[in-house]
């Protein structure tokens, strides 16, 4: 090469004036090009060894006069060098091929994993996000239900657990599991469920009345002054008693004892109550509560009683606000007609009503069936422009649930 007449500063200046080289392709396009080339597995062109060979030939040509006497040895050495280069290229190509295979295997695993994750996400999205009712229990299981409040003693509700039977009567099992239910509630404060107010009571037991009916005997804590209860405490106390109306066993009433004597005054009415009837049908409707910190929806009873099932269903189409809290509507599709056919309630949705097999519509049907249970219906038959939502088949009688809100 000729000796350069440019200084380092001049060279730097010239290089700085060259146009900027920038790849304007987006990352997805680059990824596709790389993937496509990897799949083609084009044979690598070994530029560096070829360049080295050309340089060696030029060097030999320039120095030939000085090495005439050693030409034979040079030819032998050149042949050995070519052989070595061939072996090196072969080994390098084998390593590169192995590396490409490994990269292809990794890429294939990544793509397979993406497909599996997409399939899993799709499967999860198609499933209901929550279970809202208990429809049945096993042969060796028992259903236990507990009266609680939601949203800081704002809305009455019932929570349910299904446990393996230990052979004792259901009231003993009910009392035994209160600590476990309260522990579950404490571990999930975002649900907005108040604990079962066990502090009012000291003991529960099953008894038989004079007419051979089953009843629950409740021993009220001797330190509790029920006659001084404010309205909220009275409601909480009596709502706990309502726990037993959802049990599979048919209890007639709850007998109230304190200081070994039957009869207590609840609140400031001055009336002595010997027992509280277990109401199977309170004629209430079901809305749902959802705490802001949680996605869990809890079915809740309205404070208001209704004269007819039609009135209750109308109330389920509107939100209810209580202070800073809200109960959300559960009926989100247009109902054309409601018919009573003995113990079966027929619910006819409009022909163009929005109906789909998703969480909100499963919640709607469960709320309607629980409300029908409040009005002494045994089954509900739904009619609409869909074959099935959740486990409910349209056009067929479906038994009302046993209880709401399984934990």
Low-confidence regions: 40-48, 119-128
Helix percentage: 25-40%
Number of H/I helices: 9
From the alpha carbons, calculate the radius of gyration and give it in angstroms.
40 Å
Mean pLDDT over the residues: 81
**Total beta strand runs:** 21
Order of helices and strands: HHHHEEEHHEEHEEEEEEEHEEEEHEEEEE
What structural class do you assign from the helix and strand content? Answer: alpha+beta
- Distance between the terminal alpha carbons, to the nearest Å? 86 Å
Label the overall shape: elongated
Sheet with the most strands, sense and barrel status = 5 strands, mixed
What share of residues are in beta strands?
15-25%
Give a verbal description of the structure:
- The chain has 407 residues and is α+β, with helices and mostly antiparallel strands.
- It contains 9 helices and 21 strands.
- Residues 40-48 and 119-128 have low confidence and may be disordered.
Q: Layout of SSEs?
A:
Elements: H1 8-16, H2 27-40, H3 47-63, H4 71-126, E1 133-134, E2 141-150, E3 155-164, H5 170-176, H6 178-187, E4 201-208, E5 214-220, H7 231-241, E6 251-258, E7 261-262, E8 264-265, E9 272-273, E10 275-277, E11 286-290, E12 297-301, H8 309-315, E13 320-322, E14 325-327, E15 335-341, E16 344-349, H9 359-374, E17 379-383, E18 388-389, E19 392-393, E20 397-399, E21 403-404
Parallel strand pairs: 5-6, 16-17
Antiparallel strand pairs: 1-21, 2-3, 4-5, 6-7, 6-10, 8-9, 11-12, 13-14, 15-16, 17-20, 18-19
What does this entry show, briefly?
The chain is α+β, with helices and mostly antiparallel strands. The chain is built from nine helices and 21 strands.
